[in-house]
Every structure is written in C-alpha cells, then in structure tokens.
Amino acid sequence: MTEFRAPLKLSRPDGEEIAYLKEEAGGKGRGGLVWLGGFKSDMTGTKAEALAAHARKAGHAYLRFDYSGHGASSGRFAEGTVGRWKEDALAVIDELTDGPLVLVGSSMGGWMALLAALARPERVKGLVLIAPAPDFTEELMWKRFSPQIKEVMQRDGVYLEPTQYADEPNEITLKLIEEGRAHLLLGRPIPLTCPVRILQGMADPDVPWQHAVTLAETLESQDVLLSLSKNGDHRLSTPEDIARLEAAVEEVLARV
C-alpha cells in the first residue's frame, strides 16, 4: 500500500496553488527527475507512484506535481490551457528543482515536457516520453471532431467529451483548442538535441503509434529511440511497462 503524503503547495502570482511532492536526492543518484502527467490526470497515478519508488531506491531527486485544475492543485480544469499548464511546469522547474534534469512526460505531459525543454535547454538534459501527445488539441481533437461537435463548440464554447478514464466527461473548451495553436510543434523540426526515449503502445486508442513516429522524425536530436509495444494501451502501466519506463529513465540519466 502506498503511504499517503500530504502534498506541498507552490503559490502562483494569480493566487492559485500548484500541489507537488518531492523526493530528495541521496546515495549515488545521478540526476533530477520531473514527472509531467497527462490530461486530467494527477501525480498519484500508477506510473508516477512507481517512478517515485524507483527514485527513492536509486537516490534520484524526483518532483511530481498537478497542473492547475488537476488533482490537488487549485483552479478549475475548464479554465486551463496548454500555455497555462506549460507555465505551471516551468514554475515548478524554476522554483523547486536544481541542476540538470530529465523530464518524464506522459500523454499530454509529453507535450509539456517538450515545451519545457525548449524553454529551458540549459536545465533539461534528457526526455523520457510515454505515449506523448504533442499538438493533441489540434491533431487528436479538433481534426477528429465531427462537424456536429465543432458546431456545438462554436455555439457553446465547450464540448462534453465522454471518456473511459472517468465517470464525468471531459470539458473540452473552444479556448483550449484555440490557445493550443500557439504551442504546436509538429510540422517543422523541433530544435532539441538531448537524448529522448519514447515508449508507445500500438494498441493505444487515444494516441496512435504513428503520432510517436512523427514526433521521433521531427526531433532534431540524433539520440532518439522509439520503443513500440504491440499490445500496449495508452496507460502503459503494467509491471512490464513500468520496468521499461525505469530502464529508459536510467539510460537517459546515464547520459546526463
């Protein structure tokens, strides 16, 4: 059973608070890790918890947090945007971490990790991305929405999207879609040269494995490895998946 720990809070200039948990470095740990979670997920998920246990055992510094409107952080989810969540990520990196970092991003967190690495290249020395979803608001949402859904969004400003991951639907706002266009990365070279490891399931119903291939091709780094799991789903949280995640993290940390 996972021991409950009350999250700490980082105050933001607008009065919101970002909840976070932190493992201090110790022993022979080689670097710092930052977990960036997915859309409407939180820092207590299976992969985030497993990586915390791994970091404690290996002696790595490890920070995980909830974006505004997520988990234990303040704010309303429906008011969130890609830019806001990116700023949350940069705030915790700037104010709560030291030294070189490896960012571990899951789904939307993969997009956040890429944006953070571009904004802080002097700090971010490696990436481990799990079913990464850069540009998902455009490529995996807007372009896939039917004309009827787009009409609802234009009329009401929001679409309540059913999801298999929660009882309540996701509130997909038109603001989320439109603001996301300022942060799109695919379609042109992404100027990152650090080591990148991508773990992707080929049975992922949310992020097609071809999306990960496109990302790998778009990154300028020559040190990019893409691992495809034929039966892997979007969560990639089986014991075997977790073992692959831990191995990828150690491989990238060894290059920092």
Share of helix, binned: 25-40%
The fourth-level CATH homologous superfamily is Alpha/Beta hydrolase fold, catalytic domain
Give the count of structural domains: 1
How much beta, percentage-wise?
Answer: 15-25%
Q: Number of DSSP strands?
A: 10
Low-pLDDT runs of 5+ residues are: none
CATH architecture: 3-Layer(aba) Sandwich
Strand order of the largest sheet: 1-2-4-3-5-6-9-10
Protein architecture, described:
With 256 residues, the protein is an alpha/beta fold. The chain has a single domain, classed as Alpha/Beta hydrolase fold, catalytic domain (Rossmann fold). It has 8 helices and 10 strands. Strands 1-2-4-3-5-6-9-10 form an 8-stranded mixed sheet, sandwiched between helices. Helix 2 packs across helix 3. The chain is globular and about 55 Å long.
Outline the secondary-structure elements.
Layout: E1 8-11, E2 17-23, E3 32-36, H1 46-58, E4 61-65, H2 82-96, E5 101-106, H3 108-119, E6 124-130, H4 136-141, H5 147-156, E7 158-161, E8 170-173, H6 174-180, E9 196-201, H7 209-218, E10 224-229, H8 239-253
Parallel strand pairs: 3-4, 3-5, 5-6, 6-9, 9-10
Antiparallel strand pairs: 1-2, 2-4, 7-8
Helix pairs in contact: 2-3
